[in-house]
Amino acid sequence: MITDKKKPLTPNLKAIERLADEISRAKVSPLILVHGGGSFGHPFAEQYEIAGGYIDPSQILGFSQTHLAMTLLNSWVMEALISHNIPAIEVHPSSCAVTKAGRIATMELKPLKKMLKTGFVPVLYGDTVLDSKQGIAILSGDQLVSSLAIKLGASRIVMGADVDGLYTSDPKTDSSAQLIEHVTLEELKSLNHKIEGSKATDVTGGMLGKMHEVTLAIEQGIETVVVNATKSGRVYKALTGKKVIGTVLSGKGETVG
Ligand code: IP8
Fold first, then answer.
1. What's the Rg (C-alpha) of the chain?
2. How far is the CA of 255 from the centre of ligand 1 (A)?
3. More confident residue, 99 or 255
């Protein structure tokens, strides 16, 4: 929702500014931010078939172009965060992570940990990465979120989406769809096959991809809240632990917030 998914290379500056303001007001520390590719990374990633791995030399320049597009989007985000007095510092996944068949195999976390200790807010994003099995791959922001949350022992994950949370069916096409306020791990596992992938260009799978990744963190006891980041104040409320319209996903039956 920080880009216009229908128009390539188009940031949604109003949304980026508003979210920077909400994040700044929430004053969460320590905090790591991760954003996705939207209409910056995904069209290039699809054009050059990066996610499927290396098959043709022309993909090398395509890899660079996809990464460049992501750094352009990241720059808009960084500018908004820093202008709202958030001590944000970008961490480029392509420079510190290597995947194996699309899954993070190694990731250098020392600088990131040091940044957190010093009071910075590291900002990562879905990126092109080198892959030990298939040469090249796309590492989604969603995989980064759950992997970092698990490795760094996060207490909570807040996921911003363009819908209010998880629904009984796709709210964009089914008006009888109902928001699910709380989902346990068992329910999530059985829901996983029903959740829709993204309709827009999204090589890493929209809401389905998000839930698939986040299941791993929830299994480790990390509570996750999905809120509608297009609606003003929801991210702020979720970050500050206030009651908010959204879906809480946790390992056990109880709700928080
Ligand atoms: O939007 C994918 O990140 P995501 C980034 O978090 C690229 O899946 C480069 C397509």
1. 17
2. 30
3. 99
Q: Could you tell me if the CB of 127 is within 6 A of ligand 1?
A: yes
Are the C-beta atoms of residues 249 and 224 closer than 8 Å to each other? yes
Picking from 165, 145, 175, the residue whose alpha carbon sits closest to that of residue 227 is 165
Predicted structure pTM score = 0.93
52 close to 62: Cβ distance less than 8 angstroms:
no
CA 254 / ligand 1 centre spacing (Å) = 32
Torsions phi, psi for 142 (to 5 deg): -65, -40
The secondary structure of 36-94 as a DSSP string is --HHHHHHHHHHTT-TT---STHHHHHHHHHHHHHHHHHHHHHHHHHHTT--EEE--HH
* Helix 58-83, helix 13-26: angle, nearest 10: 50
Residue 257 has pLDDT above 90, yes or no: no
> What single-letter amino acid sits at 67?
H
